[in-house]
Amino acid sequence: MEWWKDAIIYQIYPRSFQDSNGDGIGDIPGIISRLDHLQELGVGAIWLSPVYRSPNADNGYDISDYREINPEYGTMEDMENLIAEAGKRQIRIIMDLVINHTSTSHYWFRQSRDRTSGYADYYYWRRGGADGALPNNWTGFFGEDCWEFDPERCEYYLHLFAKSQADLNYHNPAVLEEVKDILRFWLRKGVAGFRCDVINILWKDSLENGKKKLALTGSEHYLSLEGTHEILRQLREVLDEYGAFTVGETVFVTPGQARELCGRERKELDMVFSFEHMECDQFLVKWLKRKFRPKAFFACLTKWQKELDWNAIYLENHDQPRSISRFGSEAHWKESGKLLALLALTLRGTPFLYQGQEIGMLNFDFDRMRQLNDVESKNVERVLRRLHIPRKARWRIISRTSRDNARTPFQWTGEPGAGFTDGRPWLGINHNCEDINLARQEQDPDSIWNWYKDLAALRNDSAVLRRGTFLPLETGEQVFAYRRELEGEGLTIVLNFSGKPARTAQQGRVLRSNIGRETFDGQLAPWEAVILQ
Ligand code: TEU
Ligand code: CA
Hints:
Elements: E1 9-12, H1 28-33, H2 35-41, E2 45-48, E3 52-53, E4 65-69, H3 76-88, E5 92-97, E6 101-103, H4 107-112, E7 125-126, E8 147-150, E9 155-158, E10 165-167, H5 173-188, E11 193-196, H6 226-241, E12 245-249, H7 255-262, E13 271-273, E14 282-283, E15 285-289, H8 294-307, E16 312-314, H9 323-327, H10 333-346, E17 350-354, H11 375-386, H12 391-401, H13 438-443, H14 448-461, H15 463-467, E18 469-475, E19 479-486, E20 489-496, E21 502-503, E22 510-513, E23 523-524, E24 529-532
Parallel strand pairs: 1-2, 1-17, 2-5, 5-11, 11-12, 12-13, 16-17
Antiparallel strand pairs: 3-4, 6-10, 7-9, 8-9, 14-15, 18-19, 19-20, 20-24, 21-23, 22-24
């Protein structure tokens, strides 16, 4: 029961994981060839970012056919093989379910342009104002407005993300029925569940103007509304027929809203990805960075640990910069990488590791816009240019926040192509690949990779770490200490988030230390992390 409480889940961004045919694009046969790596790491499930047919305006988050595999990634047979091969290794497959929007190349959307078709109301179509004004004043997630005029239908359609990602209209019950069929299609193939993209914004209560805000004007009309809860309960009935699992990506949720989305008795989601801890180093909007303050980060993690019975724990994904570059220190790469590993694997909740995190991959080392692919970065660049922000300043903003930081190819080896591809990679490989790669770390018993493996095994073996309660002990300027307890047993975790030494009141016998320490007297070295018994 509730296998997902005991498993470590690993996120694959298929485009950047492993290429098998030299076209520079990661693919499903590539993933299959690396399943042993994941088994060795000790993961119980893979969350696969979208592999459906898609024109790739947003790398698969713009789906044009939910029942087909993107030919760049392989065939349906490859996908079935992946499910089977992973299954042999006790690894489940979780699909990415993107149902807030479809690509404008989707059949539904193309039909929807014709008012007389059965698909006319699958999307939000509205007329603009007489003076050429947009249907309302909402602004989108990618920093631009969210209405696009369609010359064929002579109306605007709503798109909260890129303009080729049209929002589905759940006021039309046919849309939800379509989604249920898609769920059944994949569940029958043996997938274990879904990661549900921006799932708390499905229901728009009206398309009235919103209160003007710096970002996401209009969001009070769609964030975590009752209509969404109702949709989730309906989807849950289908999921329950197969015992399937869901984690929702829920933007801008408070702990209270999260409880309403994933409380057991609510029968909606199993858990949610919240964002608050990802906002500790930003100011108002994600593009404005401020200095990372560990204390605020600890307080935020503690709050969520206390307020939710079960969290989806993550420090990285395909939308966020790399965690060492952001919360750790590139100068103390190994120690801070290991410290973050210890954090990710010892909080209460299901740990989600993102590809490359297990070898301490860092942010990209690009130096100009042309090297980027991310549609969000490109949109933001356009907006900043319109605001007359000088080029250097634009690059500073974009390079630190771009989602491409997490999307550079996996560094398997130090060779050209990084063992990722024999061809030209779709996105540049980090030049640090000669130093930071799996092959090298496999040889080094003290590597980040071996540390991840060790901690994952420890967690997989330890009921205290998997199911124990969380007790905060210290949330200082740089020291975070907490305890996990279960049936009279307990472990204390102490983390020094700083290049400076520190002191702590915690004591105990050393079970793990990221600097190889054997006894502990309360003195912490820079970026030291320990588990005490
Ligand atoms: O992300 C939704 C989301 O709100 C953000 O994380 C987003 O990527 C961006 O940072 C907003 O500023 C999900 C997917 O994870 C993302 O990759 C997709 O681009 C997006 O939905 C649209 O499907
Ligand atoms: Ca390929």
